[in-house]
């Protein structure tokens, strides 16, 4: 980091650094987990969590409690914290945070694509498929998946209007099977890029991806 960048760091990123430090202080410690392991039931766990940063997410949950309820509450806190960071992030941090969610978005698309291929109603069983979607990968257009009647409708209604569109352009040129294949290929590519800290625009993807997948 250059001297000029260091001088401007607090102006650009100081606020979010403070927020992240606050998040770190709110993480459960080894002592917390030790105390949680001694709880005899879910009500005890809920009571303990009300003394942590999870309080506002679990305190209003009425009994009888289920493990899935507590998991959803804790996950909701994670998602809310992440979205707060994203909404207040400047570039290039904002783009990096977007990249981190693309993998989850693709997983959700693959889930819905698989359900569509097997002729499952997206909203069947109380929205079972949508409930299984990763919250970090949920986007506004995902609600329109329920009206998709086939793979081409799915592409037009959702993919072209999301941040994932550049990764799927042309995916239907040679058949709907390529759409699911493209999801898997790009999920692996994004995972590799994030883990190696190398972020590339869709146009910069190497030629190893077969024609029709990009």
Automatic annotation (TrEMBL):
Q: Which organism is it from?
A: Auxenochlorella protothecoides
Recorded hits in Gene3D superfamilies, A to Z, give:
ATP synthase (C/AC39) subunit, domain 3
Gene Ontology terms for molecular function: proton-transporting ATPase activity, rotational mechanism
Q: Which UniProt keywords apply?
A: Ion transport, Transport
Q: Listed GO cellular component terms? A: proton-transporting V-type ATPase, V0 domain
Q: What is this protein called?
A: Putative V-type proton ATPase subunit d
